[in-house]
Amino acid sequence: MQPLPVEKFAALAELPNCCHVFTQRIPGIDVSHNKAEALARLEKAHQGIRNATGFGDWPLLTAEQIHRNKIALVDAPVESDKEFSGCDGIITNQRGVALGVHVADCCAVYIVDPKTPAIGLVHSGRKGTELGVVSNAMRQMIERFGSNTAELIVQLSPCIHPPHYEVDFAAEIVRQCRALGVKEIHDPGVCTACDLDRYYSYRAEKGKTGRMLALLGLNPAIAD
């Protein structure tokens, strides 16, 4: 059996109350199309990965991803999949729902408050980073859930880096997190444009490519 085309991050894997995954390039699927068509072609494979990694029965909550800084709040039970229009991130304290972000050079930023618990998942590229989308998500976690930034764990996904891109927005995301008092920040420093066998890259593939799917959720089986 072929291994799943996914990766997990050590810092998040150690947390018993959250589940996560980051998909890689799916072999054998032609994604040299626009975003909508590419996602349609990847849907079955991504659903299979959700099923295999424990997310299959959970409602999938996604953001429209318009390169701005609006964050959706989910603080009540959800029973079905939903996309939040005009948003680039989602925060929640609800268990058994999957937050999802699609990326192909932009960064998926996982935010975990293991104490409350609460989580956030944010799409942050150049424009969103300039607008402070990750900082906005953390501020709302503080306001809505009583999170303490000193206790947050932040994990960046692989994303594009110089010299393949003119701006190192991952470094700016880290700087903004530190400015808010986050102590534990993990950046793999992996460039999506450098490894097209493993990742999709919007820049390297000239806009016609697939998307990696970042997933994050609170485990309903773990008691507070």
Question: Could you describe the 3D structure shown?
Answer:
The protein is of the alpha/beta class and 224 residues long. The chain has a single domain (6-13, 31-218), classed as CNF1/YfiH-like putative cysteine hydrolases, CATH 3.60.140.10. The chain contains 5 helices and 12 strands. It has a 6-stranded mixed sheet with strand order 1-2-12-7-3-5, with no helix packed on it. The radius of gyration is 16 Å and the shape is globular.
Side by side, the strands of the main sheet go 1-2-12-7-3-5
Number of helical stretches of at least 4 residues: 5
Specify the overall morphology. globular
Q: How large is the share of residues in beta strands?
A: 25-35%
Helical/strand content category: alpha/beta
CATH architecture: 4-Layer Sandwich
- Element pattern in H and E: EHEHEEEEEEEHHEHEE
Could you name the CATH class?
Answer: Alpha Beta
The N- and C-terminal alpha carbons lie at a distance of 36 Å
Q: How many distinct folded domains?
A: 1
CATH topology: CNF1/YfiH-like putative cysteine hydrolases
Main pleated sheet: 6 strands, mixed
CATH homology superfamily name: CNF1/YfiH-like putative cysteine hydrolases
Radius of gyration: 16 Å
- Name the poorly predicted regions: none
Helix content: 10-25%
Task: Provide mean pLDDT, rounded.
Answer: 96
Give the strand tally: 12
